[in-house]
UniProtKB/TrEMBL annotation:
PANTHER family: ASPARTIC PROTEINASE CDR1-LIKE, OS07G0603500 PROTEIN-RELATED. This is Peptidase A1 domain-containing protein. GO terms for molecular function: aspartic-type endopeptidase activity. Residues 104-451 form the Peptidase A1 domain. Gene3D superfamilies: Acid Proteases. It comes from Dendrobium thyrsiflorum. InterPro entries: Aspartic_peptidase_A1 (IPR001461), Aspartic_peptidase_AS (IPR001969), Pepsin-like_plant (IPR034161), PEPTIDASE_A1 (IPR033121), Peptidase_aspartic_dom_sf (IPR021109), Plant_Aspart_Prot_A1 (IPR051708), TAXi_C (IPR032799), TAXi_N (IPR032861). The lineage of its organism: Eukaryota, Viridiplantae, Streptophyta, Embryophyta, Tracheophyta. Keywords: Aspartyl protease, Glycoprotein, Hydrolase, Protease, Signal.
Length: 458
């Protein structure tokens, strides 16, 4: 079904310097990077000036659960693909985002002449889509709608084209266009035509990178609360994702480095190609494990250890729940919290409680398994590091910023949530745990490399 896609993959990737518009091949240029905008930063169209730390916390929790639910459903069905007939059915999901609910956005350009769009970045789905004119009952966006008629490089894909079946749910429109309907975790949906267009990215440092003939969705009908964003960029491992379409021109490599939650207005970058190489003596490498659906990035987590206490083997039962794949955890940039099977989580919490002198308190929100009263803590009272041991001898030492959240004044909780719902669970390595690490995905070597970094100052 997907074997025909490589022929449609971009044949050319050009970098235009902003001064001379000299076309250069991306090879040997050092790759490129684009800015990532946190949803709560003032640059984000999703930012809500009336939000408070506690309302943001609450919605991050809701988004995490909704995303965990999406991963769980997609794992059970092996693919985020089903009939397009009931887009609002909660089991037919193409992304775990709630329409207003991803963490990062990026700005890029579509068409010729190039028009700016700002879209949610999602490592848990593949399709790139934006809202296009004419748009029937579409959710409002801040930036003008993209007008395909006004672009000389826009082409709609026929439903007979080889690339059409790459959509998890395709159908043939009255005009024989290749049509998709994607449903989101909160019942929102987008409906449109698979198309090709020139995408361009403002690379950090002022170059513009152009990618002709990129497959993307032109959405002509939508419903949801995507707030003011123009659409979504899928960075998953499937054929239609930006990463797979850029393919060999970026050596199938991308990376990001997320600053801490408190630095949500810091500029951070999404890197491609040689800019996405993570190296150094502090870096560790673990296999990316092929799994179903191929959209998701699976790793194998062997153990979790608390400084000064023993290691806890990650309960293998979760693997049965994911159809015996070898991966037992999905790494995802769009899930705030980390989800671990409850048995493992309880053992980690027990070890942790033993290793600290702070009194335990109940979580005021009733969510977390272990909360501590840290009032009156002195300089010598520290929360221990927690190490996630990934396969291939890849210990990732997580300082307390990556494993604890402050839920009330002087109350901190271990930021791990149980992955089981109704007896089925999918472990997720979430973005609090990933903060201040440079994380490189190499889809050609099928390796993930992680190195500690000061992401706000990179
Ligand atoms: C759009 O969503 C709103 C609320 O989310 C719902 O009330 C409405 O029926 C939906 N419209 C369509 C056409 O599905
Ligand atoms: C965003 O989504 C959450 C559900 O995840 C919902 O409760 C909230 O009302 C939505 N906010 C907006 C502004 O649409
Ligand atoms: C996790 O285990 C603890 C202790 O056995 C139990 O109290 C809690 O209800 C469990 N949580 C879930 C979601 O199963
Ligand atoms: C935390 O401990 C302090 C004194 O050590 C106490 O005054 C406070 O009430 C405690 N907070 C909670 C939430 O238990
Ligand atoms: C956590 O690990 C870092 C280095 O990996 C170390 O500098 C720091 O002291 C550790 N923290 C604690 C509380 O042990």
């Amino acid at each position: 079904m997907v074997s025909s896609i490589p022929s449609l993959a971009i044949s050319l990737l050009i970098i235009l310097s902003t001064t001379g518009f000299l076309p250069l091949s991306v090879y040997g240029t050092g790759g490129f990077s684009v800015d990532l905008i946190h949803r709560d930063s003032p640059r984000s169209p999703l930012s809500d000036s009336s939000s408070t730390p506690s309302s943001r916390f609450k919605s991050a929790v809701e988004r995490s659960f909704s995303r965990a639910n999406y991963f769980r459903n997609a794992m059970q069905q092996n693919t985020p693909s089903f009939s397009a007939s009931s887009p609002s059915a909660s089991e037919n999901l193409y992304s775990g985002i709630t329409a207003n609910g991803s963490e990062y956005l990026m700005s890029f350009y579509v068409g010729s002449p190039a028009k700016e769009v700002i879209a949610i970045v999602d490592t848990g789905s593949d399709l790139i889509w934006i809202q296009c004119k004419p748009c029937k009952e579409c959710y409002p966006q801040k930036i003008p709608l993209f007008d395909p008629q006004a672009s000389s490089t826009y082409k709609v894909i026929s439903c007979k084209a080889d690339s059409c079946p790459a959509l998890p749910s395709e159908s043939c429109s009255h005009g024989s266009e290749c049509e998709y309907t994607y449903a989101y975790a909160d019942g929102s949906f987008v409906d449109g035509f698979l198309s090709t267009e020139t995408l361009s990215f403002d690379s950090t440092g002022g170059r513009r990178v152009q990618v002709p003939s990129t497959l993307f969705g032109c959405t002509h009908h939508s419903n949801g609360t995507f707030s003011d964003g123009s659409g979504l960029v899928g960075l998953g491992g499937g054929q239609l994702s930006l990463i797979r379409q850029l393919g060999s021109s970026i050596e199938s490599k991308f990376s990001y480095c997320l600053p801490s939650l408190a630095q949500s207005s810091a500029t951070t970058r999404l890197n491609f190609g040689s800019s996405a190489v993570v190296s150094g003596s502090n870096s560790v490498t673990t296999p990316l494990i092929p799994g179903k659906p191929d959209t998701f990035y699976f790793l194998h987590l062997d153990q979790i250890s608390v400084d000064g206490q023993g290691s806890v083997l990650v309960n293998p039962s979760m693997q049965a729940a994911v159809n015996a794949h070898q991966g037992n955890i999905i790494i995802d940039s769009g899930t705030t919290f980390t989800f671990i099977d409850n048995e493992t989580l309880q053992s980690v919490a027990k070890n942790l409680a033993r290793s600290v002198s702070f009194p335990q308190v109940a979580d005021p929100n009733g969510l977390f398994s272990l909360c501590l009263n840290v009032s009156g803590s002195g300089d010598n009272d520290k929360l221990p590091n927690i190490t996630f041991h990934f396969s291939g001898g890849a210990p990732v030492v997580l300082p307390d910023d990556n494993t604890f959240v402050e839920v009330a004044e002087n109350t901190v909780c271990l930021a791990l949530l149980p992955s089981e719902f109704d007896g089925i669970g999918v472990n997720i390595f979430g973005n609090i745990a990933q903060q201040n690490f440079h994380i490189g995905y190499d889809l050609s070597a099928m390796q993930l490399t992680i190195a500690p970094a000061d992401c706000a100052n990179m």
